[in-house]
């Protein structure tokens, strides 16, 4: 009798599931509020962006206020270029703070004014920095010219790599820069506040962002980490925010970095080991054009996540430290709009929101599988100041108007407590999504559910990689073991008619100079909307309720129960 390997069995199972699945099987969802799976950790409450100076600008402040408001816990924010030399001018994939310069004698001059403007904006809103120690100030760079770049969409990505990406000419000064920054932060915000932050060194050292060797990066890390710990021994610092985590080269880098922190001689202290309080890595999908249609691909993103989790789980010293997906997105370039990159045309409408719901649910599944300490997944998407309306950047808002994807995070903000058992006969298995994304003859009608002491949330999406329209499908939802006799049901929805400023803008004629009245209408359309008014329902003697909905393709619903 032929014996099959475990991998072969999984593959055949996935193949049978895909080929025998029903073109239009009615969607049935079962939720068991009595069966807890794990805490509903707010891993989604992390955001990031390239351009730090947008933080304190008009629309940046507005969006940060909305993000802070939607989350029941402090939101962490990560941004690049916090130590880059310049006048603070905001531009695509560029930012500067002028935090470090030198006088005529080569002595350090520290200026925290713009860094403070950025962190003040976060702290005043109850947010926390995921503070990136980077990039290289011009006065410290071994390759200081050219330094300022003027990249625009359509230009080669490598054009952004200038003097800020090089190693320091003096590692001791580099370490002291980190020390002075943390010391200043404690003086400004207090020790307890700074202890609640996360610090990390650089970004994607295995890619374009680092123009030194691997050992030079480890030296960079050692000196920065030593500076942080000298200023605040209880500070939390780590790395390495590797790019393309599942690739062989990235795995080599990550393992080498962990081993360096555990067993190598520290370049800064000459002792064994370097601080490693968190491990961070990146995960990206890969959409493409098929004819004139955008086709998403979540498989690379989920494989990156699985690889990062697996590596962390393989060392006893990293299995339980916080794991942060430092960038977790459908693809890699937030500032590449759909005019120059047509495969990014998913970003304005509901495809981005349904993709986000479907992939975050799988992140939780991977957390369960690897039993690691999953702390956060940074959505590398913010806003772009003074840019065309709905240009197709990977952003949460355009010109101060929220896009549909932000409403998925508003839905997440209404879920809490513990994740509970929830199944759908139309949800693709995790293995299938990791192997071939969601490409079968049917859409992924999936579910993620949570329960608090006085409420429950059931998130449902109807997602497919192919950006096609399709009729709304009936979904029969049964919610079991409700600990109350009556509940209030609120049905939140994202689709072409709800929580969707983009569709309203298109119906206006896609104006690039909307009137004040039109902007007010768009702002209202960008908020999370409900399907009708909340309803009071009686719970039967069997402690369950049945809810029947119609869910359009690329739509997302949240059924919120309160009692």
Shape assignment: globular
Mean pLDDT: 95
CATH fourth-tier homologous superfamily of the largest domain: Glycosidases
Stretches where pLDDT is under 50 for at least 5 consecutive residues are 14-22
User: Roughly what fraction of the amino acids lie in strands?
Assistant: 15-25%
* CATH arch. level architecture of the largest domain: Alpha-Beta Barrel
**Proportion in helices:** 25-40%
Keywords: Glycosidase, Hydrolase, Signal
InterPro entries: GH, GH39_cat, Glyco_hydro_39, Glycosyl_Hydrolase_39
Enzyme class: hydrolase
Signal peptide: 1-23
Explain what the structure shows.
The protein is 30% helix and 24% strand. The chain is of the alpha/beta class. The chain folds into two domains: 11-38 and 415-562, Immunoglobulin-like; 45-62 and 76-120 and 130-400, Glycosidases (TIM Barrel). Strands 1, 16, 17, 18, 19, 20, 21, 22, 23 and 24 form a ten-stranded mixed sheet that branches. Helix 8 runs parallel beside helix 9, helix 8 (299-313) packs across helix 11 and helix 9 (350-370) crosses helix 10. The chain starts with 5 loop residues before the first helix and ends with a strand. Residues 14-22 have low confidence and may be disordered.
Summarize the structure.
Belongs to the glycosyl hydrolase 39 family. This protein is 30% helix and 24% strand. With 563 residues, the chain is α/β, with parallel strands linked by helices.
Q: Features of this protein?
A:
alpha/beta, 30% helix, 13 helices, EC 3.2.1.37, Immunoglobulin-like, 2 domains, ten-stranded mixed beta sheet, 563 residues, globular, TIM Barrel, single chain
């Amino acid at each position: 009798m032929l014996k099959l390997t475990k991998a072969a069995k999984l593959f055949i199972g996935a193949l049978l599931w895909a080929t025998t699945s029903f073109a239009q099987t009615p969607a049935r969802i079962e939720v068991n509020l009595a069966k807890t799976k794990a805490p509903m950790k707010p891993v989604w409450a992390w955001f990031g962006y390239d351009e730090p100076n947008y933080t304190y600008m008009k629309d940046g402040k507005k969006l940060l206020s909305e993000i802070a408001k939607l989350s029941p816990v402090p939101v962490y924010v990560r941004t690049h270029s916090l130590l880059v030399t310049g006048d603070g001018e905001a531009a695509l994939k560029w930012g500067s703070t002028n935090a470090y310069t030198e006088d005529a004698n080569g002595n350090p001059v520290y200026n925290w004014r713009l860094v403070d403007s950025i962190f003040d904006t976060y702290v005043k809103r109850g947010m926390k920095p995921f503070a990136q120690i980077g990039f290289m100030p011009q006065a410290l760079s071994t390759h200081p010219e050219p330094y300022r770049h003027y990249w625009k969409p359509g230009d080669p990505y490598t054009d952004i790599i200038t003097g800020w990406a090089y190693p320091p000419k003096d590692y001791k000064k580099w370490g002291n820069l980190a020390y002075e920054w943390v010391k200043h932060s404690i003086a400004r915000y207090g020790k307890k506040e700074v202890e609640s932050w996360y610090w990390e060194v650089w970004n994607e050292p295995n890619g374009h962002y680092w123009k030194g060797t691997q050992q030079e990066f480890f030296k960079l890390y050692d000196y920065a980490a030593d500076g942080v710990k000298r200023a605040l021994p209880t500070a939390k610092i780590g790395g390495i925010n590797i790019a393309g985590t599942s690739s062989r080269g990235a795995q080599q880098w990550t393992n080498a970095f962990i081993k360096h922190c555990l067993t190598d001689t520290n370049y800064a202290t000459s002792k064994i080991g370097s601080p490693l309080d968190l491990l961070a890595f990146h995960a990206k999908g890969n959409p493409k054009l098929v004819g004139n249609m955008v086709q998403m691909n979540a498989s690379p993103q989920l494989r990156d996540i699985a690889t990062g989790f697996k590596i962390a789980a393989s060392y006893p010293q990293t299995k339980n430290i916080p794991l942060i997906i430092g960038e977790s997105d459908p693809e890699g370039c937030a500032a590449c709009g759909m005019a120059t990159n047509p495969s990014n045309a998913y970003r304005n409408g509901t495809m981005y929101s349904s993709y986000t719901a479907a992939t975050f649910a799988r992140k939780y599944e991977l957390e369960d599988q690897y039993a690691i300490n999953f702390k956060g997944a940074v959505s590398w998407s913010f806003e772009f100041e003074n840019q065309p309306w709905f240009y197709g950047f990977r952003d949460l808002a355009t010109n101060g108007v929220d896009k549909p994807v932000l409403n998925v995070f508003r839905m997440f903000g209404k879920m809490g407590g513990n994740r509970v058992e929830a199944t759908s006969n139309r949800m693709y298995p995790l293995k299938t999504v990791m192997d071939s994304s969601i490409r079968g003859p049917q859409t992924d009608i999936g579910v993620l559910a949570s329960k608090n002491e006085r409420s429950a949330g059931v998130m449902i999406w109807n997602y497919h990689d192919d950006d096609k329209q399709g009729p709304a499908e009936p979904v029969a939802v049964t919610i079991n073991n409700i600990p109350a006799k009556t509940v209030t049901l609120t049905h939140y929805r994202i689709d072409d008619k709800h929580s969707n400023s983009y569709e309203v803008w298109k119906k206006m004629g896609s104006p690039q100079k909307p009137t004040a009245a039109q902007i007010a209408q768009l702002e209202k359309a960008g908020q999370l909307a409900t399907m009708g008014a909340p309803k009071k329902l009686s719970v039967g003697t069997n402690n369950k309720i049945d809810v029947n909905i119609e869910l359009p393709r690329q739509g997302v619903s949240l059924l919120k129960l309160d009692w």
